[in-house]
């Protein structure tokens, strides 16, 4: 099939082409909504039952999908829980990509975190991290999310810097930024997180501010 046609063979200038694009867009939106519903259900079941006390079948039932459909999105309940971390980090990287091209990488990273004023994704991540503290089966997936963020932020930095991009500089800078974010999250868990396990918007803002402060320390050379 010619690369200028749609999957059903329709040329892009054919009236049916726009309909196909619309159907694809709706399908993607439905997939995003299903994924978000699974993540929300996973965090709720974690809060209600505790880690290890609910299954993929329980999650599928809570969302109203089949077990097979669940596994089309996540390989395990633990992976669905860790997706809260990935969602927050993806949001921050999305904000980073919108920053002015002449801004420093660190200033853009700080602004990206500060731009996440809607506490929903951060609250879910904070709540999940608190409820799964010291749980290796979930932390493994969380580490994968941080590693994925490192790769995505590195790619965004290279796009920003263009031909000026020094691979060693990018790796060092991105590693420091991600490390600062992880350190702030760990500090929040140890010293600021509510022991009740119920994370409020105010608790989430404390975490956001700690991440911002960690990045500012990095920018200021810890002076």
What features would you describe in this structure?
There is one protein chain. This protein has 223 residues and is mainly alpha-helical. Helix content is 74%, strand content 0%. It has nine helices and no strands. The protein has helices spanning 15-49, 56-63, 67-73, 77-97, 105-114, 120-131, 136-161, 167-192, 201-219. α5 runs antiparallel to α9, α6 crosses α9 (201-219) and α8 runs antiparallel to α9 (201-219). The chain is globular.
Task: Record the SSE blueprint.
Layout: H1 15-49, H2 56-63, H3 67-73, H4 77-97, H5 105-114, H6 120-131, H7 136-161, H8 167-192, H9 201-219
Helix pairs in contact: 1-2, 1-4, 1-6, 2-3, 4-5, 4-6, 4-7, 5-9, 6-9, 7-8, 8-9
Note the run of SSEs as H and E: HHHHHHHHH
For the residues shown, what is the average pLDDT?
Answer: 86
Termini gap: 60 Å
Fraction in beta strands? under 5%
| Largest β-sheet summary | none
Structural class of the secondary elements?
A: mainly alpha
- The shape is globular
Low-confidence stretches: 1-14
Quickly count the helices: 9
Number of strands: 0
Fraction of helical residues: over 70%
Rg, please?
Answer: 20 Å
Can you tag this structure with a few keywords?
single chain; disordered N terminus; 223 residues; globular
Brief digest:
This protein is mostly helical. It has 9 helices and no strands.
């Amino acid at each position: 099939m010619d690369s200028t046609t749609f999957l059903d063979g329709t040329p892009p200038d054919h009236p049916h082409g726009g309909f196909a694009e619309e159907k694809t867009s709706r399908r993607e939106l439905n997939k995003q909504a299903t994924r978000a519903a699974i993540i929300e259900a996973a965090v709720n079941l974690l809060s209600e039952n505790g880690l290890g006390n609910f299954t993929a079948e329980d999650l599928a039932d809570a969302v109203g999908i089949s077990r097979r459909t669940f596994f089309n999105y996540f390989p395990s309940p633990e992976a669905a829980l860790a997706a809260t971390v990935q969602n927050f980090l993806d949001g921050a990287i999305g904000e980073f990509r919108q920053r002015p091209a002449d801004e420093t990488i660190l200033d853009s990273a700080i602004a990206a975190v500060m731009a996440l004023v809607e506490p929903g994704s951060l609250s879910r991540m904070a709540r999940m991290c608190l409820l799964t503290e010291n749980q290796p089966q979930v932390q493994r997936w969380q580490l994968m999310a941080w590693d994925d963020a490192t790769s995505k932020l590195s790619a965004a930095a290279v796009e920003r810097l263009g031909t000026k991009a020094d691979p060693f500089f990018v790796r060092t800078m991105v590693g420091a930024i991600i490390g600062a974010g992880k350190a702030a999250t760990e500090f929040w868990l140890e010293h600021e997180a509510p022991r009740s396990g119920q994370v409020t918007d105010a608790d989430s803002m404390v975490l956001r501010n700690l991440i911002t402060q960690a990045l500012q320390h990095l920018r200021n050379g810890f002076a």
